[in-house]
Protein: SET domain-containing protein
Organism: Leucocoprinus leucothites
Amino acid sequence: MPLLPSRGRLAEFRATGYYDHFPPKSMNVEIKSNDNGRKVLLVTKDIAAGETIYKEYPVVAVLDADLEASGKYCSHCFRLIDDSSTSTQLPADQNPLGSTFCSDHCLTANKAQSTSLLFTQEPPLPPELAASNALDTAGRKEAQDKFVQYLKKEKRAGSLLVARFIARQVALETAKLAGKVVSSTTGSTSSSTKTDEKREDFTDAEEGDYLLADHIERLRYLSVKPNEEELPLISAVLEKTLPGLEQFVTEERHSMLLGKMAYNAIGVGYRDDKPEPTARPEDIEKARTPVGSQHQIGSAFYTLSSYANHSCTPSAKLSFPANTTELHIIATQNLKKGDEITVAYVDVSQHTESFETAAEARRRRRIELARGWRFACACPKCEEEGKELSKEEKKVEEGEIEVEDGKDESKVEESARKFEEKEKEMREEKGAEVE
Ligand SMILES: C[S@@+](CC[C@H](N)C(=O)[O-])C[C@H]1O[C@@H](n2cnc3c(N)ncnc32)[C@H](O)[C@@H]1O
């Protein structure tokens, strides 16, 4: 099962140009490299302020841990479950996370994409591919239970995003092997042809010539140190589901996938009642969202939107107009063909209601960016405002004097800069593909 692109395929991409084929032309954007070797997302036609540039559905999405079993939101599309929803759940023995779905459609999609493989005892392969030897049902259940206990203890979205991502790859590959068509929105399989399905959204998980592995391989990632307990638990679930599958998730690949989710996941939704985090600031999980991770209801991984860079005066905004995970990238200014799409990863407004000065706002967002994504923001607004900083403010930024509340956050940016330099050296050593 080709969960990893082969060396041959990687060589082919280099030769044929992956970015000549991805994203599809209908998305109105293209991916190019800038002078620093960084990828940028550019519009391929003029777009007026307020227009939706493109829509994208997530490859995987995970509700925040405190909401997963609350029954308040759909665990698949994140829709609010109110009186009008025909909400539904899987039977208790297939629902260890206590997930609720807003409709049968979402339940079926979620199950087909990952839940069936990770949390149920259903056969992992379609009957036509199933091996004759019997499944170790008890062993599989035990492995799943241990993994669920871990997820509930750690409460980290990244861990479940990675597990769901791996499961989705397996589901897609097995469906392809069985010659089935996978519905883009439901993830359910049928034997009909692709063309008879009207596509109104974009998720590249099952489209085109590329595998999900090909897409993820291209994305940059943060280097993270996984919890040592995690990989053996996921491996056991995979091995007990389909012996041999665990070999695709090596230590290196597991930490890379966690790093890709940490770098690229987008915070979805808005709420005011999220519990205050208790972890150290550097350990709090952050997803890119202009409303701040503290207001999200969950996080989701989108292939194309992963390429959007941050700006403190963004040219577009991340929006969820249907109050679901359906992401709309909307222009916030008139864009000319070739302009870059930038979005705000963090709250870039100046909190004048709490008398925040422009320099304080700059410092706040830069620290959040450095802490969450380990870069020193090089956007035009930061550059401009940087020139206007008073001597005193510069000293604060450079860590020469402590800020009033005594928190020495100056080192956060300094270490982000060092991280960027180290990363650049590594890239130059290994070649542009590995970041
Ligand atoms: C999710 S990736 C965005 C795509 C990325 N440019 C690429 O080459 O694939 C996020 C990373 O892009 C870079 N980046 C994004 N916005 C930036 C900005 N305003 N200033 C400097 N670096 C930025 C940082 O390295 C950041 O960690």
